[in-house]
Give the backbone structure.
Amino acid sequence: MQPTTLARAMWTLYEPIHAITYFAAEARAEFEQAGLRGFWRGYFAGRAAPLGAIDPAPVVGLFNSFAPSMVERALPAVWDLVSPAEALAARSRGAAAVLAGVVDAREAARLADLLAPIVAAHKPAGHALGAANLALPEPHDPHARLWQACTSLREHRGDGHVAALVAVGATGADIVVLRCGLGWDRAVHQPARGWSDEDWLAATARLVHRELLDADGKATEAGRAVVAEAEEITNQAAASPWEVLAPGEVLEVARSLSMPAHACRELSPEVTPIGDLRLWDVENDPEYLDP
């Protein structure tokens, strides 16, 4: 399997494990008990906390697809409710509680051990959110350790994805509108990212002008090509750490992650603001034929 293909295939397995912090009941309850009531307070505080008591402007840039006004409703006000350290502790406790119902402690420790050299191989340059997560102390709890490994991988990839979107000129509202032209549900993604109807119309006009959308708001071949190019750049940026795996280790890691990945995906809503994700079917598709 090519390194870029492997990087994407593995992403489909660690992304659902990371995402439990947003959607699983135990994880959301920990944020609420810490004083972060409402989904988006927990989301912005928990995800931004590795960066410290950060203001909204850098988060707008790093998270990319959210309207600035939406970020500004949460930050910096959440830091009056919790400190970054308290937010980090809440997200770790919540994630660990969820994973404890998915895998036992010994298996969680084994999975974390499998991921450790891959996490360690990630370079921080150009990856602010990934670097901040990589620098966090390793938790003692095996379930929290597994979740943090998956989250470090995910945020490092996410930084590379934002850079890729910058490279192809599809950031902010534009990428959300373009994705909806490829099949995402506007009714889900527009409010989830905080874009107004005026923002949406302006982004649509820009994309039509670039011939990335047609007059009906559907992605053109050129639009599809832009998204495909961004995905390929993302995979390239995320590929090198997976080269620490010997050929015989690839399927071992993938098979080990597959069960908790599928179990965690079941804990998330069928439709989420993250978008659709086809998990790697390791047994039936060992070469990962990405559709």
